[in-house]
Amino acid sequence: MRFGRRVALAGAGAGAAGLSTWAAMTNPFTAGANAVSALSLFLVVSAAGLRWRRARTAPALRSGTGMEPWWPWAAFFLVVVAWELTCLFLGPRVDHPTLSSLYNSAARLRPVRGACFFAWLCLGAALVRT
Amino acid sequence: MNAQTWSDALWALLALAGLVLAGAAHLPARPLVRASRLLRRIEASTVGYVAVLVAWMWLGWHLFAR
Asked: ipTM exceeding 0.90?
């Protein structure tokens, strides 16, 4: 790996850690939470926009055409979405928690909130690298 | 068992199923595609890339700002 790339990666990692620490100290529905979320969105979407012109030449998604079967993932996500919607409309939330309410319970601990924010930023970075 | 226990059990089962799928995708026989490879295939088209990016944006705003 080239030196410049290593420096850029280290800088991005440090920046993500700083943003995650900031996010861990905020509460939803506050100006601080809005600011750290908006800044992260702006940074990742800007980076994605800069790479917009990169050629995307991979073939269409299809089972059995040079790729292992993907239908188990599709079935899994369908079940997750179906159960999420069931919980959303079934209520009350304490009896039927959605993924968001499960996250909210866990994110009362600030380190968990910061770790989730960092994981979300890593996902964003993966989208930019694509 | 009450409704909350059933719900929690089902979420735990789904989480376990996700881990099993991720593990199975890394077996030498590769019975299914890896999630990362599947995501890259979806992102290969412009529409797919924008959809994934918007989903990522919504997730972050929903969890951390709202």
From this structure: no
